[in-house]
């Protein structure tokens, strides 16, 4: 993103920039600002000191840190993931120490949407004190999110069965193009009084993949601000045991962008405020392009008379579309047309452009009719 380059130039031009060790849990300013992006500027949990952030090695690092804490200090053994989920979840949760890895139903191949009845049934059967991983928005790989009403019903089950919500927030802004709207599910759970963990990633929202910028946000219940201090000292030990401290550069970029406008004015850095708005615009441009490609692919498939219903290509959210091809069909499209996707037919919509979208549609048509 162009504005990231500008900020980087400014950071690296600073003659006081050093390469000292950072605090084990990263940059203080980043740890204040990143959770606010998800929980909201006026989050009572943050203001009351019962929620806090720790800089991690991106979203994946946050998942790993949280897993170690849940297993080592809270004795959780069972984790539930959506079926399907992002491939790496299983690996992180197993290596992080969960011994019982389970799935709740999520994808319904018949409707090419969320199998909400199946999901609720499975959650209702989950043993008490299980950890439930929920994608905040733009679910990877299905691109199908819960409605607000469905989140409310999931929250009821979590409460009834004493299940621990573990939120994976890797795509804030990619479902609706609006950062606050996309964070609604987490804010709702926090308002209802849940204690939870959030694994937040800046890989996508700021295109900082290789810089490994993320945050583990911990939200505790009312009256537990002291526990927040105790918990953070345990997180220090986990970070020390794994990597000592997270890297500085990317978190400096992010905290520069997220800085409080008032503070920025004080420091005569009003320009940052403009850049922050520009960031929102960039996200919107990316999001709009993905939407345009979804539209183009859907139109082309319909125009060709491709058997089946292709509405899901339009309605799914985020970067991916779960096309609904069988593993055999995926093999066929790869071999014959050299179009690649995961064997469960998760395709990255960002790979489409005006020049290739019709060719992809024709290949899908050929695959489906053969
Ligand atoms: N969660 C999900 C659902 C993801 O798709 C990803 C990245 N593909 C991540 C977490 C973690 O990404 P990163 O470690 O780069 O922040």
UniProtKB/TrEMBL annotation:
<comment type="similarity">
    <text>Belongs to the class-I pyridoxal-phosphate-dependent aminotransferase family.</text>
</comment>
<comment type="subunit">
    <text>Homodimer.</text>
</comment>
<keyword id="KW-0808">Transferase</keyword>
<keyword id="KW-0663">Pyridoxal phosphate</keyword>
<dbReference type="InterPro" id="IPR000796">
    <property type="entry name" value="Asp_trans"/>
</dbReference>
<dbReference type="InterPro" id="IPR015422">
    <property type="entry name" value="PyrdxlP-dep_Trfase_small"/>
</dbReference>
<dbReference type="InterPro" id="IPR015421">
    <property type="entry name" value="PyrdxlP-dep_Trfase_major"/>
</dbReference>
<keyword id="KW-0032">Aminotransferase</keyword>
<dbReference type="InterPro" id="IPR015424">
    <property type="entry name" value="PyrdxlP-dep_Trfase"/>
</dbReference>
<dbReference type="Pfam" id="PF00155">
    <property type="entry name" value="Aminotran_1_2"/>
</dbReference>
<protein>
    <recommendedName>
        <fullName>aspartate transaminase</fullName>
        <ecNumber>2.6.1.1</ecNumber>
    </recommendedName>
</protein>
<feature type="domain" description="Aminotransferase class I/classII large">
    <location>
        <begin position="12"/>
        <end position="364"/>
    </location>
</feature>
<dbReference type="InterPro" id="IPR004839">
    <property type="entry name" value="Aminotransferase_I/II_large"/>
</dbReference>
């Amino acid at each position: 993103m162009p504005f990231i380059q500008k900020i980087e130039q400014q950071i690296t031009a600073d003659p006081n920039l050093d390469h000292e060790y950072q605090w084990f849990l990263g940059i203080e300013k980043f740890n204040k600002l990143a959770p606010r992006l998800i929980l909201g500027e006026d989050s009572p949990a943050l203001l009351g000191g019962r929620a806090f952030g720790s800089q991690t090695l991106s979203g994946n690092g946050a998942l790993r840190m949280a897993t170690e804490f849940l297993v080592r200090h809270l004795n959780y053994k069972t984790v539930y993931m959506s079926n399907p989920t992002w491939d790496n979840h299983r690996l992180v949760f197993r290596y992080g120490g969960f011994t019982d890895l389970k799935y709740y139903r999520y994808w319904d191949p018949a409707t090419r949407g969320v199998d909400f009845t199946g999901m609720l049934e499975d959650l209702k059967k989950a043993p008490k004190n299980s950890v439930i991983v929920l994608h905040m928005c733009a679910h990877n790989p299905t691109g199908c999110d819960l409605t607000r009403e469905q989140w409310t019903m999931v929250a009821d089950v979590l409460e009834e069965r004493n299940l621990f919500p573990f939120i994976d927030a890797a795509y804030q802004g990619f479902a609706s193009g609006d950062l606050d709207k996309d964070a609604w599910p987490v804010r709702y759970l926090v308002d209802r009084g849940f204690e939870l963990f959030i694994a937040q990633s800046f890989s996508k929202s700021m295109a900082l993949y290789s810089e490994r910028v993320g945050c583990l946000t911990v939200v505790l219940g009312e009256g537990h601000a002291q526990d927040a201090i105790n918990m953070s000292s345990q997180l220090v030990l986990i970070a020390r045991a794994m990597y000592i401290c997270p890297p500085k550069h990317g978190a400096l970029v992010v905290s520069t962008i997220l800085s409080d406008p008032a503070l920025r004015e004080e420091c005569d850095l009003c320009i940052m405020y403009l850049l922050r708005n520009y960031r929102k615009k960039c996200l919107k441009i990316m999001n709009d392009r993905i939407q345009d490609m979804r539209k183009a692919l859907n139109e082309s498939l319909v125009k060709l008379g491709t058997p089946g219903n292709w509405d899901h290509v339009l309605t799914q959210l985020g970067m991916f579309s779960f096309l609904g091809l069988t593993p055999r069909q995926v093999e066929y499209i790869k071999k014959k047309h050299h179009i690649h996707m995961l064997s469960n037919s998760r395709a990255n919509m960002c790979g489409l452009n005006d020049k290739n979208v019709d060719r992809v549609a024709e290949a899908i048509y050929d695959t489906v009719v053969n």
